[in-house]
Amino acid sequence: MKNRTRTNWPVMILIALGTVFILFPLYMAVTIALKNQNDMLNSIFGLPTNLRFENFAQAIEMTNFFQAFRNSAIVTVSTVVLTILTNSLVAYAIARNMAKRKFFRGLYFYFISAMFIPFPIIMLPIVKLTASLGMTNLLGLIILHTVYGLAFNVFIYVGYIRSIPIDLEEAATVDGTGTFGTFVRIIFPLMAPINATVGILICLSTYNDFLLPLVIISSPSQYTLPLVQYVFQGQFNTEFNLAFASYLLAMLPMIVVYLFAQKWIINGVTQGAVK
């Protein structure tokens, strides 16, 4: 007799409910973005009577979408590159010295403890410091994003680097390669999976960040995509159909990035956890 796998109905029901809860907001966003004001008044949950793709064109014009997207792209790409280059070096120094030196062990736990500090607590000092240093621009935003990601990235990087056999570095040292040369030629190429993971996570968090650009950026010409969504908030009403059209346009680049790169996230974290 063939073994028949029994269906776990409670789990199936929970999965179905979870799918509905996830897809329903997306359904609402798409349908509202394609409605006119009359459809909004008649039924907020119903389908649009006429598809208004003009909402997307109007949203692009109102938000100056392409300039805001350029600002977001500059900040995101620069932050990802700077984060991978600098945070991996810091993590490498900690991972190879924390077992022998108390300073590096303490430094590691110092970074870990920084993960538990909420941003609103340090928001006011950061605003004053960046204003005094003239960093209320995209460059300051890039630097702050790189620094704020250091704690979590060190935590991920250290676990991965410690899984790399130290024999490779000892062989390079015997051949006369210095510490920096060993990192560049041997360790960094082996860190490709975890670099991809960190890069994707930083890309998503930086591109979608709203609070840090809100308190840092002073010039409207340097607003990122999350900030320009304020244009739809009126004093007495909100144009929800145009707002949701703009939200979908802003989401689209990161959805594409995530669809092509999601396998690297799990792959990098899994490899970093296995020693």
Automatic annotation (TrEMBL):
Segments passing through the bilayer: 12-34, 73-95, 107-126, 138-161, 182-207, 240-261
Annotated ABC transmembrane type-1 domain residues: 69-261
Main location: membrane
Topology term for the membrane: Multi-pass membrane protein
Keyword Membrane: yes
Record InterPro entries: BP-dep_ABC_trans_perm, MetI-like, MetI-like_sf
Keyword line: Cell membrane, Membrane, Transmembrane, Transmembrane helix, Transport
Compartments it resides in: Cell membrane
Source superkingdom: Bacteria
Record-stated family: Belongs to the binding-protein-dependent transport system permease family.
PANTHER family named in the record: DIACETYLCHITOBIOSE UPTAKE SYSTEM PERMEASE PROTEIN NGCG, MALTOSE TRANSPORT SYSTEM PERMEASE-RELATED
This protein's name: ABC transporter permease
Source species: Saccharibacillus kuerlensis
Gene field: msmG
